[in-house]
Amino acid sequence: MQKRTFASDNYAGVLPEIMEALQAANNGHASSYGADEYTAQAIEKFKSHFGDDIEVYFAYNGTGANVLGLSAITQSFNSILCSELAHINVDESTAPEKFTGAKLIPVPTTTGKITPEEITKRIIRLEDQHHPQAKVISISQTTEYATVYSIEEIKAISAVAKKFKLLLHMDGSRICNAAVSLNKNFASFTRDAGVDVLSFGGTKNGLMFGEAVVFFNRELAKNMKYIRKQGMQLHSKMRFIGAQFNALLANDLWKKPAQHANRMAKLMEEELKKIPSVKITQSVDANGIFALVKPTIIPELQKEHFFYVWNDQTSEIRLMCSFDTKEEEIRNFITKLRALSNA
Ligand SMILES: Cc1ncc(COP(=O)(O)O)c(C=O)c1O
What we know:
Elements: H1 16-25, H2 37-50, E1 55-59, H3 62-72, E2 78-83, H4 87-90, H5 95-100, E3 103-107, H6 116-121, E4 133-140, H7 151-163, E5 167-172, H8 175-182, E6 197-201, E7 211-215, H9 224-230, H10 239-249, H11 255-273, E8 279-280, E9 288-292, H12 298-304, E10 308-311, E11 316-320, H13 327-342
Parallel strand pairs: 2-3, 2-4, 4-5, 5-6
Antiparallel strand pairs: 1-7, 6-7, 8-9, 9-11, 10-11
Bound molecules: pyridoxal-5'-phosphate (PLP).
Pyridoxal-5'-phosphate binds next to helix 3.
């Protein structure tokens, strides 16, 4: 029997259409390191979404995409402001610090989002040689709490970046979930909202591997090919990343898995709301649900459909849905949760 969990969208496998694209690309020889047709076509697809005047660099994983993008736009005397919960702050070891040399400045958050007020408070001592020089604001879309910034919220953060001559980076490891949640095209909440550099995620939405760093100002990418190689993210058989993005971005394939995952999260939310002992802690905007449950039931509940505990102290759990989550699994989970809660 196939086993599925609510642990992470990274636990899910690969979309069948992506497997087919990989298989189709496995055809004879192709130039390496990105000089192949698949990569060229994938870059064209990104241009069709974001405009011709962009630079696109593929990477293996999300940490790599974030670290490379941030490395391209910082120097080691800079600082990067991000949410205290940001993946770059808590889940990338010290890769961002190691490769950029810059200091991460965590901004407090209760929703996963950071606000212009809290960011501004931390942009201090500009041009003071003794102090880390703020250079980048980094936001995650969707956030680590699976909440989604509105276009207005992103524009307001971008206004802060512009005011202080900083750059705006977006960790879009779940950008497809954000786009379907907002029901907007990719450019509207990235480039058009003032984002300068974007990590465009593929893996969490059904790719086997592959993310892209997208620069909306070509000048910012001028050293990127060296930075990527130095950062060990230059894939020799790049055609297999290109082929996957080609398939994902063709005929809006990307929408289907993201819509499904978000819809499953909504169903989970609706069902959880009916259980009095459960308290949902965050707005369910995309494919994740955060909820407080009785701590004593967690080990038993994890047995059939594994999930992670987000906060041991408060007994807050994180339930992630993915493109292959089945309605039936949600119903099973809820039945078990209800039974355990009443026991
Ligand atoms: C917000 C966020 N950014 C980036 C990533 C990418 O991480 P990885 O390096 O594991 O692909 C993740 C994965 O969990 C994430 O949740």
